[in-house]
Amino acid sequence: MTDPGDIDAAWLPSAAFRAVGSRRVLVRAGEGPQAGTVHSELAEACARFGGRVVPDGADADLVLAPADVDGLGDEGFTFERRGGTTTVTASGQRGLLHGLFHVVRLGEDAFTGERAREVHRPALATRMLDHWDNVAVHPVMGQVERGYAGGSLFWADGRARGDLDRVRAYGRLLAACGINAVAINNVNVHATEAHLLTDRIGEVAAIADVLRPYGIRTHLSVTFAAPVVLGGLPTADPLDEAVRTWWAEATRRVYEAIGDFGGYVVKADSEGQPGPFAYGRSHADGANLLAAALEPYGGTVHWRAFVYDHRQDWRDRSTDRARAAYDHFTPLDGRFAPNAVLQVKHGPMDFQVREPVSPLIGAMPRTRLAVEVQATQEYTGQQRHVCWLGPMWSEALRFRPDGSVSAGRLADGLVAVSNAGDDPFWTGHPLAQANLYTFGRLAWDPAADPRAVLDEWIALTHPGAPERLVDGLHAVLDGSWSTYEKYTAPLGVGFMVQPGHHYGPSVDGYEYSPWGTYHFADRDGVGVDRSAATGTGYAAQYAKPWSEVYESPETCPDELLLFFHHVSYGHVLHSGKTVIQHIYDTHFEGVEEAEEARRVWAGLADLVEPARHARVAERFEEQVRCAREWRDQVNSYFLRKSGVPDGRGRTVY
Ligand code: GCW
After folding, report:
1. For the Glycosyl hydrolase family 67 C-terminal domain, which residue ranges apply (predicted)?
2. What is the pTM of this model?
3. pLDDT in the model for residue 538
4. Of 58, 289, 462, 611, which is the most buried if we count CB atoms within 10 A?
């Protein structure tokens, strides 16, 4: 059982260091912030578990040392075990830090048998978390927009926290799963937060100082209107000389305060945020303005592609929000600066439980791209429901726009909206920690098997876990995404959530709204026709084979059918069921699966630290209640629309 003092430690409880800490360890990491971390981690682990940090030349069980290995880069490392010695080498301190955590993950396995030299390096250069944290509590969105884990880790009482110990602990957790960049404020940049860029950069620097020893660079969300709202200029036109000078000067000062500052994140012309459209300029003009300011210092601008009309008329059937990012950005391919990265949500809509992979991914070969996923569970149960997103992300990362199975790279970076806050369990729902951990590991290696990553998380979080606990956690987590999908919006149609906060069911909640998120259910059928032949043409944004696969209901995968097509309730799926019977069956099953997961969790009470067990148990009560609400509202809605009864005669209201 976990030491109660370790609740805060998530996947790095002290016992996770037992294997390393009971060895003779030789470190030649050199000087520098991450080298310092390697030294102190090992010294602490050895002090706790009876090992020893030995001087150069002495016999050692574990050696960490610099080496010049071709192609390792700044973050890669080698690992091998020969003649009773485990050796980690790296060209940079960051690599040694990653190597150390690799050894921690392996535990005793790192010190048994022989292992030929393995080379480890991250597949994606940027592995980033975006925090939607506000400095000043926002009247509607609170301190953390879409945050379900308490307040912000970084900000409290209107300023950067004075005590950054928890930020330090956070940085350590992130380093241990491979994350190397954090944006510390909301992409919706409000009045107070705009000032972080200029007169409040000192607060950002204090946070950056704490994250640096873990190899994490700090990024800032900035408002495109900064030259106006902060600089007093009459315009923020990206082609205006005074505007360019303003950004260059502001950025120079940022780097004076934070030498390794990562760069800017920008949400422009999106949901009311200012952007280049106001000046008749393109998003390439906008992004390149900031890229030019950052370029002398090696910084990057992450420019978000979440640009769509959020004030559309629901009566207008020709506008399709799913098309928007592709339509806006593909004409700009090749026009973005080398240090501008287009940050694209993994799906074309908005982090629904099921969406196709965005057609923008793969459609801009001359543009650097980062894929954005949402660890914070805005649409997947808000950390009251267990919903492990590893399989969903893995599916998206394995998707190949040309239908191949090659391991070719989808993007330069992977970004997640963080699900962490100042909650003692970090993520509100203790099991949601698995999402954060899995994200980091998949960003390091998108080809990794998510279940193996989950095994790592379980082993680190519960060192020495008996098989019953390991099996129980798998039983609760493995299928939790599929369970959530079953009791919520069916067959990829999306939304059906309560407007505004997005928790719980409201089938027609967004049906007559300006947000572009409709399901078009009537008495005959449901779904959005996005075919090229008769619909919005969205399906044609894909390259072959996907454009053809999605074009026809005959070939479209069941799980996406209502995303791409409007079909009758009697339409027969590949599964052999009609759409209406599928809706009934999955909603009953989803609730049963949630109840079963709750039962499995209850049976683990003797193996899990009591406070953690109680927190999860309490969340399961809410999940089951809410799942039943989803089931009954969705089933009743479709019974009333269609008049088709459940083939199995179960209760529908
Ligand atoms: O998912 C939506 C959220 C908004 C968010 C927006 C975005 C930060 O509902 O709260 O704003 O996406 O990604 O910009």
Report:
1. 427-650
2. 0.97
3. 98
4. 289
Q: Is 350 among the catalytic positions?
A: yes
Minimal CA–CA distance to 480: which of 604, 555, 384?
A: 384
Contact 601, 620 (CB under 8 A): yes
Q: Are 650 and 587 in contact (CB under 8 A)?
A: no
Atom of ligand 1 nearest to the CA of 146: 10
Q: Domain residues for 335?
A: 126-461
Report the separation in Å between the CA atom of 561 and the middle of ligand 1, taken as the mean of its atom positions: 25
- Helix segments in 516-651, DSSP class H: 546-551, 561-564, 579-602, 610-642
Catalytic residue among 41, 237, 320, 350: 350
Whether 279 is covered by a domain: the verdict is yes
Active-site annotation holder among 41, 130, 372, 378: 378
Phi, psi values for residue 564, rounded to 5° = -100, -20
Using one digit for the tens of pLDDT, what is the confidence trace for 345-396? 999 999 999 999 999 999 999 999 999 999 999 999 999 999 999 999 999 9
Distance 307 CA to ligand 1 centre (A): 11
| pLDDT at position 4 over 60 | no
Distance 379 CA to ligand 1 centre (A): 11
The domain tally of the chain equals: 3
Which residue's C-alpha comes closest to atom 13 of ligand 1? 306
List 44, 271, 313, 402, catalytic entry? 271
What are the residues facing 118 on neighbouring strands?
79
Going from the Cα of 504 to the center of ligand 1, the distance in angstroms, rounded, reads 17
Of ligand 1's atoms, which has the minimum distance to the CA of residue 145? 10
- Nearest ligand 1 atom to alpha carbon 132: 8
**Per-residue pLDDT reduced to its tens digit, 451-462:** 999 999 999 999
Instruction: Could you list the beta-strand ranges (E) of 186-239.
Output: 217-221
One domain, residues 219 and 335: yes
Domain end marker among 72, 101, 120: 120
User: What type of residue sits at position 211?
Assistant: L
* Inside any domain, residue 472: no
User: For residues 93 and 38, what is the distance between their CA atoms, to the nearest angstrom?
Assistant: 8
**CA of 417, closest atom in ligand 1:** 13
